[in-house]
């Protein structure tokens, strides 16, 4: 009787342990599936948001080129015609024509840098150089770049990386009030590292309320590339470190 | 004859050690669960169980001077208390599911081995005093009955061995798994 009782309670104990293991396994499986679904949803959401942003930039680029660009070209033409029609044209008119011509060049460069189709024809390094030339041409800011000859990324990934850099230096100019930006691109150990540092006023990295849409975009894009983006900031400037695994995306 | 048998046993008995082991087991396992469990409510239940055990020990051994026989009632109370602690632990494990599989969770296997021992031995603890009282009187005492009592205690020892084996086996298995690259 005692043996039967003991065996029964022992069987109950073993049964509880087995049931517990099975239940926990199923629960774990459910959680993992839920997590996977959530990750997939987040990724889809990010992709959609980035695609929408790209589409907006494309539209903006077309609008700048076709509309504002045409208006400026017409204005330049009219100024030119007027200047030639006058027997003694004012010096200011010539200056106005040159200014409009410069504005058209700037606008075309900007339009190109926003146009996805155009960007996809070039690699990251070429686009970065072009962007640096455009920024440096303003004479208000200085941008220095150090980079390898080529980087081994598919063009769509290069475009995403370019947008990260664009967003980072726009933040430096707009919020950091920086006048010097240094961009360092390095690849090695299966990783591509891009550092964008400025001499701006900096910000409190730990304060989440200071993290704007720009920072969120950088983080999202870096995550989509399977990498990460980290900020370091002090009163003398900010550095954004972006790291992307190359083997994962080649 | 029966009285003499009781007295003889009382003089050479190790019952005092068993009674002290009752308290020590309760406090040690209680302390373990107190440190393992996370919520105040669960910790409070553990403390309450340990207090009940301590009060029982004081009443039985100091106030009532103890019994010359193995204290079955005490061990039944101990088993019930520890099984409650085990169920509280299992409830916590079920409600806070981690990424780690239970197969590699030493705490789970340790608690399972406690359950195997205390739940398996429950009937033995429950009946041991009754059986002893029934067998020890001279008119009923026989070698067969004595062997039966020894066999029952032997089953208890087997359960204790299984429980220890499970703890040892799981600790070796988990250490081995953790060392794997």
Walk me through what this model shows.
The complex is a heterodimer of chains A (250) and B (181). Chain A is 65% helix and 15% strand. Chain A is an alpha+beta fold and 250 residues long. Chain A has 2 domains: 1-119, no CATH class; 142-250, Heat Shock Protein 90, CATH 3.30.565. Chain A has a 5-stranded mixed beta sheet. In chain A, helix 1 crosses helix 6 (213-224) and helix 5 (155-174) packs antiparallel against helix 6 (213-224). Chain A starts with a helix and ends with a helix. Chain B has 181 residues and is mostly helical. Chain B is globular, with a radius of gyration of 19 Å. Mean pLDDT of chain B is 83; it is low at 1-7. Chain A binds chain B through residues 1-3, 5-6, 8-10, 12-14, 16-17, 20-21, 23-25, 27-28, 31, and chain B through 90, 93-94, 97, 99, 101-103, 108, 112, 115-116, 119-124, 126-127, 131, 152, 155, 159.
In short:
Chain A contains 7 helices and 5 strands; from the N terminus they run H-H-H-H-E-H-E-E-H-E-E-H. Chain A is an alpha+beta fold. Chain A folds into 2 domains: 1-119, no CATH class; 142-250, Heat Shock Protein 90 (2-Layer Sandwich).
Top keywords for this entry?
heterodimer, A: 250 residues, alpha+beta, Heat Shock Protein 90, 7 helices, B: 181 residues, mainly alpha, disordered N terminus
Present the secondary structure layout.
The complex is a heterodimer of chains A (250) and B (181).
Chain A: H1 2-85, H2 91-114, H3 116-119, H4 124-137, E1 142-146, H5 155-174, E2 180-188, E3 191-198, H6 213-224, E4 228-234, E5 237-245, H7 246-249
Helix pairs in contact in A: 1-2, 1-6, 2-4, 5-6
Chain B: H1 2-12, H2 15-36, H3 40-63, H4 72-95, H5 106-120, H6 122-135, H7 143-179
Average of per-residue pLDDT values of chain A: 83
| Beta-strand percent range of chain B | under 5%
Based on CA atoms alone, the radius of gyration of chain B comes out at 19 Å
Shape of chain B: globular
């Amino acid at each position: 009787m005692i043996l039967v009782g003991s065996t029964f309670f022992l069987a109950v104990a073993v049964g509880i342990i087995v049931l517990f293991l099975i239940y926990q396994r199923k629960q774990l499986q459910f959680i993992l599936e839920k997590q996977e679904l959530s990750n997939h949803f987040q990724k889809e959401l990010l992709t959609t948001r980035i695609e929408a942003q790209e589409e907006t930039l494309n539209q903006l680029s077309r609008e700048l080129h076709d509309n504002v660009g045409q208006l400026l070209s017409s204005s330049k033409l009219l100024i030119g015609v007027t200047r030639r029609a006058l027997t003694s044209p004012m010096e200011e008119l010539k200056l106005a024509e040159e200014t409009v011509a410069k504005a058209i060049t700037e606008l075309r460069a900007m339009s190109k840098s926003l146009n996805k189709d155009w960007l996809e024809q070039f690699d990251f390094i070429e686009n970065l150089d072009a962007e640096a030339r455009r920024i440096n041409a303003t004479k208000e800011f200085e941008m220095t770049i150090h980079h390898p000859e080529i980087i081994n990324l598919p063009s769509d990934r290069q475009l995403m990386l370019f947008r990260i850099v664009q967003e980072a230096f726009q933040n430096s100019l707009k919020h950091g009030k920086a006048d010097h930006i240094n961009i360092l691109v390095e690849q090695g150990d299966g990783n591509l590292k891009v550092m964008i540092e400025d001499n701006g006023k900096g910000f409190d990295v730990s304060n989440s309320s200071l993290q704007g849409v720009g920072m969120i975009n950088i983080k999202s894009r870096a995550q989509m590339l399977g990498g990460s983006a980290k900020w370091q900031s002090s009163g003398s400037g900010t550095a954004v470190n972006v790291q992307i695994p190359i083997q994962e995306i080649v | 004859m029966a009285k003499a048998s009781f007295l003889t046993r009382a003089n050479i008995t190790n019952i005092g050690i068993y009674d002290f082991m009752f308290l020590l087991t309760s406090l040690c396992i209680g302390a373990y669960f107190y440190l393992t469990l996370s919520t105040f409510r669960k910790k409070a239940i553990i403390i309450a169980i340990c207090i009940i055990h301590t009060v029982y020990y004081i009443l039985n051994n100091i106030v009532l001077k103890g019994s010359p026989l193995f204290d079955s009632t005490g061990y039944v109370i101990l088993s019930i208390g520890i099984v409650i602690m085990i169920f509280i632990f299992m409830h916590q494990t079920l409600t806070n599911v981690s990424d780690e599989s239970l197969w590699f969770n030493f705490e789970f296997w340790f608690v399972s081995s406690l359950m195997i021992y205390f739940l398996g031995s429950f009937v033995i603890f429950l009946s041991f005093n009754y059986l002893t009282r029934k067998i020890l009187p001279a008119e009923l005492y026989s070698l067969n009955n004595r062997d039966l009592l020894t066999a029952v205690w032997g089953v208890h020892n087997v359960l204790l061995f299984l429980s220890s084996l499970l703890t040892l086996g799981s600790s070796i298995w988990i250490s081995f798994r953790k060392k794997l690259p």
